[in-house]
Every structure is written in C-alpha cells, then in structure tokens.
Queue: 3 jobs
Job 1
Amino acid sequence: MMLTLTFILFFVYVVLRVWIFSKNKEWRDLVVFALISGLVVFFMLVPMLGWESGALLNYAYKFTRPIAQRFIPAIFGVEV
Amino acid sequence: MYEKGRISAGQLFIIMLIYLTATSSNTNFDFVYGGQDGGLANLLAIPLAMLTFYLYFRLQERHPRKMLFEYAEDILGKWPGKLVTLLYVYFALEVAVVFARGFSEFVVSVLTPELSADVYLLATVLVAAYAVYRGVEAIVRFAQVAFPFYLVLLIFINILLIGQFRLYHILPLLDHPPGEILFTAYLQYIFPLSEVIFFLGFLPYVKRSKNTIRLAYLAIALSGIYLAYRVIVSIGVLGEGTAQASSYPYIAAIRFVKIGEFVERIDILFLGIYIMMILLEFIVVFYTLTYGVAHLTGVKSVSPLVLPLCFLIVGMAKGIIKDSNDLFLYITQVRSVTSPLFILIIPLLLLLVSRVRFGKSRQEPEPADGAVESAGGLADGKASN
C-alpha cells in the first residue's frame, strides 16, 4: 500500500519533470531522466506481477557461483 | 569537479571510520568461517585494504580535484573511460541495492518484526536523496556531529561487555586451518575494508595535506582492529557455536549487557545511533552512484537524477535478496568473484597506464577554489548539484 502510494507520487513527479525538461529544451536530460524512470517502473512493477524476491541475486549466481565454487576451494581449501 | 565544497583530512577520517565499522559490525562471515580466529583474519585484511586505498590515493594525487569517472577518461581515452565508469556505476548500484535491503531486513529482524521492511527501505533512500542533494559538506558535517555519540556508545558498551566475557570461549586460538583464516581475511577485505573505494566520490574534495593518507590508513587500521575485537568479544560472550549460528552475533552479544536489575536491553540504545551510522554508509555509496550516473550520461544537473535513482534502488531491492542469509551468499559467492576487479585490477591498470602515458611524477596543478567556481561546473557541461 505504502509503496503503491509512493509510486503514484513518483509518477506525478516524473510527468512534471518531463514537462519542465521539454519546456527548457533540455533533451539530453529528458532522455536520461525518462530512461531511468522507465527502469524504475520496470523494477517497481515486476515484483508486483509476481517476481520472486531474490531473483536478481539468483541471476548473478549463475555467472559467479561456478567460478566461486571452483577457485575458492582450490585457493583456500574452503567449500562455499 | 562537480561541487564547490571542500572537506578536511580529519573529516575524511571520521566518515571512513564510520563507514568501515557500521554495517560490518553485524556481519557474520568472519564468525562462520574463522570462528575465534576471525579476529586474526580481520587484522590480516588491514594491509590489503591499505593497498587498495593507496592505489586510489595515488591516482587522486596524479589527477587532483577529479573523480575517478573523469580521470579514467583522461587516462584511457573517452570510450574505455566510459566503460570503466559504467562498471563502477553498476558496482555502486549493486552495493546500494544490497545495502538498502540488508539494512531494512536488519531493522525489521532486530527491532520491529511487525513492521514492513518497505518502510525502512523508503525512509533510507529518501534520506540519502536529501543528503546527496545537500552535498558533500552536509554529509561530512552530519558524520562529525554523530561520530562522538557513536564512539562514546561503542566504548561504553564494549566496557560493559567485558563483564560477560569468558576466556575459555575463545580458546584455543589458531585452531582453524590457515586456508580458512586466509579466506576469512579475504572476505573481510572485500567487505567491508575494501569498500574504501566508494570514497572515490569524496577524495576530490579533500583539502591537500600531508596527513590525509596517514589519517586514512589510521581509519582503516582502527576499523580492522575494532572488527577483530568485536569477533573476540562476541565469541567470548556467546561461545563459538552460538555466535556462528546467529545472523547478527555482535547485537546478540550486546543483548547480554546488564547493569544490576534496572538497566537491560542496552542494545536498543546502541541501535538508535547505529542505524544513523548505517544510513551514513548508504549515503556514501549513493553519492558515488549518483555522480557516476551523472558523469556517464553527461546531464547538466545531478538533482533530477536523485529521486529516480532512489526509486530504482527501492524497486531492485525488492528483488535482490530475500533475507540476511542471502546477504551471506551474496558476499561469499558473488562479491568474492567480482570485487577484485574494482578493488585491485582496475585501479592498478589505471595507475600503470597513467604512469606510461603521463610519466612518473605527473601531478596536475590543483586549481584555486575561486577558479573552480568560475571555470568548472555548468560552463564545461559538467553536472552541478
């Protein structure tokens, strides 16, 4: 509930900011701002659509776990 | 150079000491892998962290009043420099996201189990946004004001903890195989001690002084000694098995502090100031992240980026880790692989290329404050606050 309310307020802020950028013709700033805000919308909405908590960490694991599990025992003799 | 503010070497010392001792007080990697020898492992990590800081400090000396994002382009050229900036932005984002989630999980676990972690997540990022908006001087002043309380409280609590300490809990020393102790030292090096790299956002603002590097080394050494002490005292109070099983062994040990029958739950007192210190730690990472993104994208002003980045952290924090156990996995299986790139390989590469390209004793003249104000900032297309 709290996150949803904050998200709505943030959406209002984004609309206002985009309007200010376009009024001042600051196109580069507008594009950067819109891109980051787009990412925000994606990452805020995806958990609401049932994205598992910890999914990002699991994604990182796919790359780093094989390296960690191969090199750490070889170097330190410790199982991780 | 993005801001007009300057900070002293003493202020850098304070904020470094806070950064390196706050969240790390409550991690349990060194307890799990090192047991009572975790204290020794923390001491072994100190010289490594000093090496990392030395590399960044030498780079900063060669490129005064510039952030890493700027001098990486000077050294490597525009696009390789942008790639380095992108890597650091990614790393800062990853650390900020894990920090924010870890912090909110910590507070919910130890203080308010009935309250949603989202409340703390939002509060953390909004305070950090305000701090970054106010600038580097405001951040270090906050650190200066809060530091005496933190220090007095730490001394007070640790003196009281000695009463509960049992020597037989920490014996025998050097009981673990050298590999485990060295791995623990490595883990303590990658988190928290090597995170001095996030001061790359602060180093350009430090007034030049012979004491700067000495005070920074002193902050690293004192932090390492404190972390070693906390392992010894926590295991001395709880015993090795209990300390290893606990997610927050230091807080668990502090709960044992009792004065007669009238002063109990002194951990609440500690947590009050301690939460502010963790917040400060988050602010340092968020500051670096914001300025990294500003430099990468070439925007004119930093302030419009602050809120979207805040909410990006909130959104990502929802999906990064589930609980404090995931934080353990993150450090041991993700950071243990990715950290060397940021704490050793890239700074070493930058230093070597800088030496080859610009000679051994290159040192850009440091512009006067007035000159920076007139020549820097918006006129050069650089971001301002």
Job 2
Amino acid sequence: MSARRAGVGRPTVLGAMVVALTLGMLTLAGTTPAGLGRPVDDPSRVTLDSRVFSCTGGIAGTTTFTGEVGSGLVAPRKITSTPVHTRVDEAVADTSFAGQQARFARQLAWVPCPEPRATWWFVGAGGAVIHDTTLRITNPRTGAAVVDVDVFGRSGEVEAPGLSGITVAPGETRLVDIGRTAPSVGNLAIRVVATRGLVAVSAADRFNIGVVGVTAFEWLPAQAPPSKATTLTGIPAKANEATLLVVNPGTVEAVAQVQIIGKTGTFSPQSLKPFKVPAKSVTSLSVKSFLDGSALAIRVLSERRLTATVRTVVARDTAYGTAALLVRSESAFAVPEGSGRLTFSSLTEAGEVKVFGYDAKGRNVLARTVQVPAQATAGLPLSARVRYLRIVPPGSGVIAGFTVQTQRGVAGAGVAPASRSIRLPQVGPGW
Amino acid sequence: MKVTAVLVSHNGARWLPAVLGGLAASTRQVDALVAVDTGSQDGSADLVERATGIPVLRLDPRTPYAESVRAALDSAAPAEPDEWVWLLHDDANPAPTCLEVLVATAEGAPADLAVLGPKLREWPSLKRLLEVGVTLTGTGQRETGLERGEYDQGQHDEPHRVLAVNTAGMLVRRSVLESVGLDRYLPVFGTDVDFGWRVARAGFATLVVPDAVVFHVEASRQDRRDSELVEHPRRQERESAQYTLLVNSPGWTIPFRSARMILGGLLRALGLLLVRAPDEAADEVAALVGIFLNPCRILRARRERAGTATVPHHEIRPLLAPFWLPYRHGLDYVTDVGLAVAASIRAESARRRPPGVTEETPFLERVLRTPLVWVLALALIAGRSYLGGEPLQGGALLPVPDALSSWWHAWGTWRSDLGVGTHAAGPAYLLPLALAGTLLLGNIGLVVQLVFLLAVPIAFAGALHLLRRLCEGSAAPLWGAATYALLPVVSGALAQGRLGTVVGAAVLPWLVAAALGLADGTAPVKRWRAAWRTALLGWLLISFVPAAWLVIGLLALFAVVGGYAEGRRREIAIVVLVPLLTVLPWAMGALRSPGAWLVEAGRAATIPVDPGFLDLLLGRTGGPVEAPLWFAIGLPLAAVLAFLRSDTRATVLQVWLVVLAAATVLAAAARVPVTLPGIPFEFRPWPGFLLLTVQAGFVVVAAVAGDGLLKKVSGDSISWRQPVAALTVAAALVVPVLSGGWWLLRGSDDLLTHTAPEVIPTYQQELAADNNLTGVLRIVGGVERGIDFRVFRSGTERLGQDGVLAMTSPDREFGHLVERLLSDARPEDAALLASYGVKYVYAPPPVAGVVNGGLDAAVGLGGASAPALGSRAWVVQEETSLTSIDDTRARLRPLWVVTALGALVVTAVLAAPERRRRR
C-alpha cells in the first residue's frame, strides 16, 4: 500500500515542484529589469574640437582679455573695427576664457566674448537717441549665416522689416543699429535668431543717465533663452537705480513673480506683487530697494517663458545683470580690472564652490572654498589683483556671477558654463 | 578453326567449380586452355590446376586484366591463321551450348567480324539479363540498353552489331586481340568497351550472339571479390568509362565532352545527394577528379591510339548511345521519385483520414471534412490583406529587398557597404529565406507574404500531426492543434510582424514530432534519421529564433541528467550540435554579442515589450494587437489540472519539464537587458517564441490529459473530480473558439501594411536604390533629447539588413564627423562626408535649430528639396566615393559559410528517406 502511495506521490510532488518553478520563472520574466532603455554608451554631449571666442568690440577703446588657466593671460589686444577671433583647441577648451573690456574715466564696460550659437537674447536695449544699442553680428565660421532680428518694446513687437534675412558671409561682421532700423522709445529686448549657420553677437549699449545726464557705455550681456525660471546674477550690491526688465516673447500675457535669493535664503518680497508682462513686450519695475549691500541674485518665475535683466546705475556708470545657467562643471572666466565680489547662488541644495584666482602673471592669489547655503547666495570679495578665476562647483550646480565696482565704474556678468557657452546636443547613431 | 580459351582467375574459388564444370560440360570443347591466376589467396589457382590438369600461369595480384590476357597468349602456342580466343572470367559460367553457338557464328562470319559476344545473364538468378552488348553515353556512362533487372524472355535474341561486348565469354580473333590489344591502363573495368571501340575503329565488327549465354556474377562490380585492383568499384567503373570516352572520341569533341562530363557529373552528384546517396555522389566527384587531375594518362593513351584507326569516327557514331539517353534516364528517375513521393503522400493522407471518411466518400465531402481545409480558409480570410501589392511591412517586419541576391549577399558576404561599412554577420534566417526565394524564382515578396499567410495552417497541421501521435482520440488533437495554431495570432506576433515567432510557431510541432522519433527504442536506423530530421528542423527554427537553441540545449541537459539519453547520446549530440554548425557564420559573428542569441528575427527593439506575470501566463507579451487576456484563462488552468489524471501523469510531467525549460530561458532573457553593438540602448527582447513554447506545452498537456477524459470520468464514481474536470474542459474549449472568432472579427488593426512609411524623401530613396554612392544621412532629434543619426545606403532599411546593422559597432570616426557638422564643421568635412558615400543629409520635422544652423553653416552642403512640411535636406556638393567606409573583412567567414552549407547538405541528405539501392 505504502509502495503504491509512494509511486503515485512521487510524480505529484515532482509535478507540483515543476509547476511552482515554472510559475516562479514566469514571475521573474514578468518583471521589468532595471536599466531597460539605458543607453549602451555613456551619454556624452558633443565635445568641441575647438572653441571660438569672437571679441567684437563696439565700444571705443575695447581691449580683449583672453587666456587659459594653465598658460595664463595673453597680452591684451585692442580691438579696432574688426573683431578678434580667438580659437582654442579641444585640450584647453574647458579652461579657456575671453572677455572684452572698455574703460573710461568713470566708467567700466565688460562682457565675456561671445561664441557662435543660433539664438541670442539681449534685454535692456534701446532704439532712441538717448538710449541706443548697436548689434555686432559676426560669423566666425566657414559657412554663410542668415539671421533674423526681432525687437520687443514696451507695447509689443517693434516693426523692423529690414531686420530679417540678414546674410552674414563667413568671417564677416554686420552692424545693426537698433535706433536706426527699429526706432522705438523705452526699454527693448532683442532676439537674434540664426536661421542658417551660427553667429556670435554682441550688443554695445549707449545709455543716457538722467534726461541730460552722462552717457554710459556698456555691453548688454547675452541672456539665457526664455524660461519659466530665470535667475539673474552679476548685480551690484548697491546702486542708485536698479530696474528689472522682463521680456515675454510669447503670444500670451504672462504673470511674473520676483524672488530674491539672498544671503540666508530665497524669499518673495511682500512689496513686490506679481506683475503682468504683456505678450511680446518688455515690462520694467524698480528693484532698487532690495539691493542692500549683500550678495544676491534675482529670480523671475512665471508660467510663461520669460527672460530678463537688471539694469543698475551706480554713480555715472551702468551695469546689467545676466540671466545665467547653472554651472555644473569646472569653469574659467576673466574679470575686469578692479576689486569686487563673486556671488554664488544655489537653486536647490547647499554646496561648496572651490575658487582659485590668478593674477595677470598667472600666479595663484586666491584659493578658497565658499559654502553656499541651500537656496541662498554667498559672496566672496574679489581683490583687484585677480584677473581670472577657476571655479569648481558642486554637483548640483551653482549660479555664478561677479561684480567689479571701482572708482572708475561698475561692471558685472554671469558665468556661463565653461565648455557650454553654447548648448550642443548629444550625437549618436540611431536605431 | 581453333579456339583457345583464356581463363583469368583472382580470388574466385567461390564460383570456379561451377565455371570449370560449365567448361567441361560445353558441347563444343575448347582446343586449348590457358589458365592465369593473379595472386589468388583462396586457392583458385590450385583449384583450376586440379580440375584441368594444366599448369596455371601465376602472376602478381596487381596485374591488370589486359596484362593477364597478354601473358596468357604469350605462354600459349603460337598463333594459327584461323585461331580464336575465348576469354573467360572466374565468375562467368558459360551455358553448355555457348561456345558451340559462338563458333557456329564465327565459322560463317565475314573477315571483318572479329569479336563475338554472348548474352550475359545474372548469376545466380540465371534469369535476369545483364548485357546484350554494351556501349557508352556522351556523359561517360556504360549503357546496356536494358531496363534494370529485365528478365530474359527472348526479347533481345536477335544477333546484332554492337560497339562492344563484355570480355566474359568474348570470342575474338587472336590476330585482332594481339594487334589491337586490351588497354593496359585500365586495371579491370572498361577494358571491353575500349577494346570494342578500337576494334571498330580498326575496321572490324563486333557482334552479339544472344543464343550463346554466359551467366555472370559481376563479382568485381558488385564488390564481391577481394582484389587489390578494385577498391571503389563504382568510382573505378565510372572513371574507366569516362577515360574510354576521352581517349577514343575525336579530338575536337574533347573540350565539349569534358565540359559536359564535369557539369553532368556535378549535377549527378547533387542529385545523388538529394536522394541521400552520399557515397555514390562522392564516387561521382572522385571519378571526375581522378580523370581530370591526370590529363597525361589521357594524352598518352590518345597518342598510342593515333594512326591505328582505319575507320572514321562518324561510322562508329551509330554504335554509341544517342546523346539524349542520359537525360531520358534522368527523367525516368525523377518520375520514379515523384511517383514514390505521391504514393507515400497518398498513403499518409489515407492514414490520417478523419473518422468516418473512406476511399468511397465523395471528394467534396472528403475535402469539407478535412480540418486543415477549414483552417486554411480561415487563414485566407483573416490574412487576405497580406497577399499581393507592395512588400509586406510594418511593426517588427521590414520590407523585403529589391532582389534575392541581397539576401544571399547579406548572409554570406565578408563585408558590405551597409551603413558606413560593416563586416558583421548576416542573420541566420536569411539562408532559409534566400533558399525559399530561390525556389520561388526570386519572388521574395511572396516568400514573406506566404510565411505570414500560411504560418497558422502549417502550425495547425504540425500540431495535429504531433497530437495524433500522443493522443488516441480525435477531439483532443483537434482542440490542441486549433489552440496552438492560434497562439501566434492572439499573442500579437502575427499582426506585429514578428517573423521569428511566426516561423517558429509553424516549425515547432514538426520539430517535436521529429524529436519523438528519438524515443524509438526498436530501430536505431529510425532514431538516427529522426535525429537528423530534428537537426534539420532545428536549423530552421534556430535560424529564426536563436533562443530556441538554448531551450534545446537545456532539454538535452535534462535528458542526460535524467537518464533519458541512455543509448541515444550520439543522436542528442546531433540534435544539439548540428544546428549550430548550420548557423555557423552568424554564430561566429555573435560570439562577442551573446545577447544576440535572445533576439528573434524581426527588427529588434522596435515595439516596446514589457509583459507582466499574468500576460506571460496567458500567452501575451503586453504589446499591441493582442487578444483579450481572459480568453486564455482555461489553458493554464487545464495544464495544471492535467496532473489530476493519474494515467497520463508521467507524460504530463515530461511536457511540463519542457515548459520549465522554456520558462527558464524566458526568465533569463527577460531579466538581462540585451545590448547589441548597433543598438544604442539596452532593450528587452521580444519573448514571443519562448512564450509560445510555454503555451504550446500547456496545450500538449491539456490535450494529453483531456484525451478520452469523458469516457474515463463517466466510468468513475461521482466525486469532486467530475465537476472540476467539466469546468476545466469547458474553460479550455472556449479558448480556440474565442481566439478564432477574435482573429476573424477584430478588423484591420494590424501593424502590417503594404505601405512604406516615408523615412527619407522619395526622390532620395529612388536615387539611393541600387546605388551605394547616393547614401542618405538621416538626422533626428535636438539639443534636449540628443541627436540620432543613421545612414541609409540603398534607400530604406530592408529585411535582413536590420540584423546586420544591429551587429555592427558604430563607426566612431563617422560619429565625430556628424558631431562636427552639427557644432563646428571644418571646411573639409563635406568632402569627408562624401567619402562615406553620403550624398544627402535629411532631417525630418521638427528640425532642431542646432541641426539647421550647423548644417547650413557647413561648407560644401547646399540646400536640397525636402517635401515634408518642416523637414530640411541638404545635398553634399562633393563627388561621393566609398573610400572612408569600413573595409574590414571577416576573413574566416567564407570558411564558416562553406561549413554551414556543407553541414546543411549533409543534414538534409541524412534526414531524407532512405534510398533503396538496386542493382
């Protein structure tokens, strides 16, 4: 009896085991493995063989400051009518920098030399007698470029029929005087779009402080493309005037809100209510009261895509804040002559930024680690000896900028990600 | 008239007593007898000496027949004016009246009649005719003019002139024998035909005298004699006949005869292989090689014959076989084979006749009662859109290439210009597709259409064939076959264009049925053939579904571990290893990408696959065009409850082991994201076939356990088993009904269409067709999601090319070139692009600014027409070439290709039915 039971039982037990194992296998097979869809190769963006800085000048007495962290500053060059193109190869592309500076008795103008890209935004331009902006559109590349220039004013887009389809031959520079081609009163924003090719653009701005006041010269910094959160940096700590200029290139009115990324954190000033930015228009409002001497950055939030700047008037000079992108990797940049302050703003978590400063002879004169609290701005005094810097940001990235304020004027700028002053795609074989 | 008999013996002691007896009983005794023995080991010489009382001339064992005769004549008395020589073999027994009849003819013969030959009849049957004179065909075949095994009923009894007669029993004038002589280069075979030909050229006639009879064993030809001179009788006979033709034909015909001989020989060898006669095929080729590798022998023999002829060739021509004779023999043979196949099909169909159908049933009724006819009709209705028009494509199925040669090329080449050049191996399934395309005279579009149209009926027929072997009743196999055949339909494989699963579903039941033959415990020959048949079907399956090999391997392991392989290890080794050999070119290419073993035929990673447990249990893969899940609930339920039936439990358990093996490979395949060199991301391979195998297992266990269930359950006492069985059977029965209904009524939501999506503009596609120098670089994407590029070499991607490209590592140089073009093009980059054979760059909408800007700014790229709204195209303004594409060659691939083809031919031959060899 027991033998019979054993004979019957064995296949049953075996069968149960096989069924259970099969169901187990199907369960295993029915769960999605981790890593599905992951690229086989580590995704890497296009690495440029070289970078081209086009120092375009545009303000009398412009001098270029170019160099590389390892080899130091190259002897400054004066720019006359033709731009100076500086080409650096792949090996040093990440640590190279170039900026142009113009100095007068009481004024200091500074802008990083632009690199060719397809879309450019300048906010705070003018197209009138007392405030005029001249674009220098240069094509350092080997193929022809065709650009359209759009101008946005207080009351919408400014008609400028002559500003579309401008052909820029390889190596050529075209000048576009907004006052002549799109005359308009008030603050303007300019968009330059290369429909063919890539161009480097600078915007030399002439601004009369006061009705019959002094004429200040400054380059408008190239702003980050419109986005729902724009962070402005490179703003002087104190100013006689500070005007936030916001452009809405969209076709729908936007409601914007300003946040201050201050020393201790980010806050929305109660005195600054959300404000409207009409479609295709530029709106301005004063933010002078928030410049209390401490390091800060200004954040403009909206449901629509906007970009902005802050124009500050300090004594007889003007400076423009830069809508900057997060710097996530090691970057190098030059600063104008004079002492000032570096600012580092965190958008999310706290982090530390390693800062190394070098003098004109390439000697390391500054080595500091700056702790940046979460969603706050930290400042670091900048000595006049420092002519260029290298920063190592935290993994989460940081918005970096600087201001230089001397008796001879004020200047400020944001730090563009070193190897990505233009964004390039990741390129790979498709399937 | 004097008759001197020359008896040459060599290990012929078996027949000599009878031969000597015949000689003694002759009604006309010979006047002299000379006996020669060539080194017999069996006492032949002594036997002759004892019987005749004359000394035997003993020669070396390797003495050719011609030399033996010459030595005999040398030792005989000097020639007399009217002396004739009667040549006798030790295996040729003359009838008592033979010599008398021959002599009577010789005495009244004209002076030019020099050779007389008897009628040869088979010994020991004594009735069947062997020869009544012989001649040669134009392909070098010995031709007797008789049917095989023809009985002697006096139908050839008219004396007539022939080219030659056999030396066994030949009566020849001694003067002619000595002057013309036998060819000493022919060791045994063919001496008679050659001698007859030369006798005719010398102005003498050869006559066959059928009233004289000799019974001949043909010991040498039948390999029944130990002889150092005869090692491969078939080969040597073939070689000697070809030699005779070449040395005696007119000089100007030699090139034509040689070409005909080589071509005919190779075709004959191929034919012999196809009818599974590899030894004969090898002999055929070896004979050809033997003849043509030794031209000096031919030249020497022709020189010796020069000047001896007095009669022109054209007078001999009527004595040779007509030129068409070999073809008639070929046709006869093919007809025989065809009739045999038809008879076997008739017998098989009679065996499988549905119950109630007899030979007398009217034809229409018989057709209507055949389940396969209904399934075929269903498939034609449901898949009517697959036929005709442009190539079938969509889902995972790419359109077929323009020409059949593309498939052959992609399968066997060591490099190609595809993409930016590749030496990756072509997928293994291209070989069966190319073979099918060749059979359909290059209509490769039809190959794919037929695959998708007929897969279900073929799967049904296979499953029915298999289940009828496993079940006794007729209902369970019918249910099982219908459920199984619909699996590729309900799992979406058919509608998604999953070529691998579809072919796999059609092949699997036939393979399993062939593998059942391995279990045959009685006939090793049948087991052996079953192993080769399984291997052949394994080749077909693995070509389309490489993962099937893992299942087969796992099952073989189970069999070895479980002790089932005892006494069958050789067969199991064949089943496991031979299919590997047949896919060798691909398998060697896949060595560095083991993931390729999990990827079926069909474009990989096209449709996202992410089935859950329930999907897999119910035979779905979580993709588009699947039948509702709940349709199939009855199937796994029945498969599990099948264990309840005790009498079929052992079989059910064995099938469940197969299910477990498939599920194990399925789990392994699903858990490891696959990477292939040419696919830039990790993906989960389509689990179609493995899932189908699991489900097929469920079907088999349910059918086996359900077979005769009603009868069994009704006989048992009432318990909980009856209601459970009834519910399960009901749930299982609805599976094929619902599935079939869904297939017919679901509408046309197939991914398969005849319309090609426009991947690149039509004009670029047309320019690129068949022109490798008009490649198109297609760029998709932008800054945010990255940019993908692909090079289309000859229009859009075609079936088979995807497999090659998936195994091709990206060309980094070309990648850098595209990067530069999109970022900072150098002046020379357009020329570099042109050197990859790229004429156009195309970006479908929406085109990212960086693409527009980068390519617009690049020197050497001009605007080109881009018809689609928002798309852009550029033309490379440089002369295109292929100088920069990858020129690496897979140098060992030709070796793998030859090995694979060889293995396939051997497998096909050994899997074919045995050929009955006849004398």
Job 3
Amino acid sequence: MSETKETQEKELGEKAVIKVGEMDPRFKYEISKIPGGEKIMLCFQCGTCTADCPVARFSDSYRPRKIMRMTQLGLKNRVLSSDVIWLCAACFTCVDHCPQDVEIAGIIRALRNLAVHEGFIPAVYRELASSVLKTGYAYRIPELRHRKREEEKLPPLPKANLESIAKLSDVTGFSKLFEEKKKET
Amino acid sequence: MAEQKYLLFLGCVIPYRISSYEISARKVAEKLGIELVEMPEFNCCGLPLDPISHDMMLTLAARNLCLAEQKNLNIMTLCTGCAGTMRKVNMTLQEDKKLREMVNGYLKETGLEFKGTIKVRHIVQVLAEDVGLEKIKAAVQKPLNPIRVAEHNGCHVLRPAKYIGFDDPENPTILKNLIELTGAKCLDYMDETECCGAPIIGVNDTIPLQLAKEKLDHIKAVGAQALITVCPFCHMMYDLHQSRIERAFNETFGIPVLHYTQLLGLAMGFSPDELGFKELRVDATKLLSQLGS
C-alpha cells in the first residue's frame, strides 16, 4: 500500500462539505470506552500532535489533529476506510506532548482495530498475524538462521506453544477477524 | 552467584535478522556477571498485532509476563519495542482491575494467570540502573580512542513517559553517559529523539526512508563517525537500509551503525569478530582501524 496523495486527500479532508447524515454522534463514545481512547472528547484542536509528528512532516495526508476532529465529529466511515490511519509510527511523541493528555496514538490504534472489524487491513498486518499464529514469531525465522545460530554458538531459539497461541487467538476473537476474505486497504 | 539474573526475551526481529545485537549483548552481559536465562517458551510480545487487536496484544504480552512470573525472574529485552510493550502491559494490568480480569479470563484457557510480580527491563535500564555506571566503568579494560559518535535511543525506551518512566524523553542523557564510559565522545545533533520510521515501512516505504535520511544528514553534519543504537528496528533502518537511502537520495553516508553492546564490548577488550561486526551491512573497517581494534 503506497500513499497516494489524491485518494487520501479526497478521503480524509478535502471533501469540504460534511453532511449531517454522515456523522455518527455515538462514535466518540464508542472510542472513549476503548483503552487509550478515554480522553477523545478533551481534544481542543491545538494541533500540537500534528506539529510534533515526525510522520506528518513528510506526509501530505497524515494529520493526527484532523483524525481526532473527524473522530469527534463521528465521521466513522471516512476515518475507518482511510489509508491514513495506518501511517502512525507509534513513536508516542504526540502522547507525551498533548496538553490535554489525550492518548492520540492510542486512539489511532483503537480506530485501526475498528477498521479491521470493518474489513480494512493492510496486507503487512495480515502477514504478521499469520506468522504469529503459525510460528509464535512475527516473522518466519528461516532455517538458515537456526543453523547459523549453531555456528555462532547461540542457544537454540525458544519454541512457541502454538496450541496456547491458537486458543488465545480464539478466545480473544482474533481468529474470527481473519475467517472471511477481508478487503485489503 | 550472579548479582543480576534475568529471563532474556529476544523478540522476533533479532533472531530474524539482527543477530549481531544478540551476540554482542550476551558477551557484554557475561563480562558484567549478568546471568541470562532462556525463555522456556516464546511468543511475540504482541506489539505488531496491536493495530489489529488490542486484546490479542494484551494477552500475548501478559502470557510472556506469566511465564516470567512462574520462573520468578525479571525479563530483560534487547528490543525497545518488546520492552515498551511488556512494561506498559505489566503496569496497566497491575493498575486496572477490570482489564486484568478480562485478560486473566483469556489466559485461564491456557492455565495461566497474570499476577504482576515481576519487572520488565530494557538492556539500557539494566546497564544504567541495575548494574550501574561504576561497575561498567571498571569493566572497560581497553578504553576506545576518542572517536565521535551519535546516539539514537529508539522511541519505546522513552515514550510514553507515563508508562515507561525512564530518562527524560525530551533530553535523554542515560545512553550518552553509557557511551562515554567507553572513551568515545557522544555528540549532540538536531532532532536526536526523532523516530526512525521503521514501524510503518510495511505500509509506506517513502516516509521512513525520508525520516532515516534526515537523521543521517543530521549526524553527518556534526561529524559523527558512527551511530549507536539500542533497538533492532532502529538498527535495521539505519544499517540495513542505509545503502537504499543513499541510492534513493543520491547521497553518500557510509556511517557504521553499532549496537551499544558492540561499542561497549570493544571497550571491554572483545574482538570485532566476537561481537558480530561481520553481520553489519555498513562496513565498519575504517572505524575499527581508528579505534585500533
């Protein structure tokens, strides 16, 4: 998924007219119940998050302040279907700098979780999930690496308890997220 | 008996492609009398899955914490991402009864229960706080020539401050002090605490390269001869991707990127081979000759 300026600007901000029917007044309350999202209502749009965001400096479309406002306004579909929410690098600079103590990166994570429920998930996350479920590790460690460890006199890598991981994936509802063919953003 | 004993949590990135960090960290730990116990079982710390499901992240992290609790050992990680995630989850589950009950409900299915009895430490914390600068200084048998280096902490060892509570995220000095114990001089440069960009490279590869390029520009501007990191993800951005950055921006950097444990290892008298220098992508031969190693 590469950032395409035109589509993203259209999706997130540049549609100047917001129709009332597009706004879901419950959305902010939904977010505020998710860990990390508690203080969404306190954002007063000062823009510190965007000003201090390293990603925003190099992106034409990623603006955490705008994502916070759209969340407050309840523009649920626009936010969840947008590629832009996947650009947060989770450096947490915004969290440390927010004068209102809004956990901006936590809210973006909550939005991503909801986006996944709606079927929007970048391919890379599908791969990471699959690798954890199949090996316990987020990346498949090639056989060559295991052999190299022996040469380097490193102890063998600890094995994953795949049965436990599968069970946890089921009870947390994680497995269900991948059951049907989902749209890739 | 070792004064310090930890369960070593390697994470995923290090065994996948950054073995030089593990090799050098084990050497340095042994020299300092830090005993490292292998994890009995492994699963990812949870961080890469947080964007998909916060509950799954909490549960995977908590599962590792439970394994450490069973061994009654604190965890030491080399990766800042693993440290940050497990520290935050450990703290949150200790404080938030409702969340703990939810996660324990899941863990019960696998016969585990989170109790909150152990600590999670990143190796920089272990070195600076548990081992202490005096003891490290005493282990520096071959102080390095005063080469000029720059440090890069990695976000998750410092932020969010309310969960991590280590050093000053706006003006971190602990890694600098650790570096200077080796004899190297640690330089100040523009935007030292800026993110490497690695976490989003899977969804967008232009922004992380621009971020990393800017960092390399800034450390080149002050004349740093090497960049010192303490996170495998950050290391990957600056070492593995450095040639890609040079091609993309038509620039020449040639700045070796060392794990702090490699720098400290050299000052302790280990040879570059013993510290996994061969694994580095950016050639460090010139730097090593300046060091007389």
